[in-house]
Amino acid sequence: MAWWPAVRVTGYDGDRMTVRATSAFGYGLTFSLTDLTTSRPDRLTFAAEGDLRGEGIVTFRESAPGTCEMEIDWRVATDRRWMRATGWFLRPVFVAGHALIMRQGERHLNAWLRLDEPMR
Asked: pLDDT truncated to tens, each residue of the chain (120 aa)?
């Protein structure tokens, strides 16, 4: 995604989108999004498989005239063996890495949507 440097779409065949997300801590995850269903005007649902496995719902709500909020409820587990084996110890690193990627995505998406501020 041009507006989200840590996340790249590496493949799309019309039914499955393959994504590579790279953490600020040096590890990456590759997963596919499938079963994308839109419920217009305000909801997307999808399934994930690969390094992450689970389901997600994205809901959009108008928060003020001309603006909206996006809520992501994505319930996944990792299928990476080393992450499962070290999760009890490295969970704070995984949580921090996720928070950093999501903050970066929010910041860059907001700038991209405004088109008037440079993305950093």
From this structure: 678 889 999 999 989 999 999 999 989 999 999 999 999 889 999 999 999 999 999 999 988 887 889 899 999 999 899 999 999 999 999 999 999 999 999 899 888 888 655 555
| 3-class secondary-structure state, position 10 | strand
Q: Which two tokens stand for residue 57?
A: 């719902």
What's the per-residue H, E or C state across 58-107? EEEEEEECCEEEEEEEEEEEECCHHHHHHHHHHHHHHHHHHHHHHHHHHH
> Is residue 113 within a helix (H) or strand (E), and if so which, with residue range?
helix 81-114
N-term to C-term CA, the chain: 15
- The number of residues in the chain equals 120
Among 64, 72, 67, residue whose Cα is nearest residue 101: 72
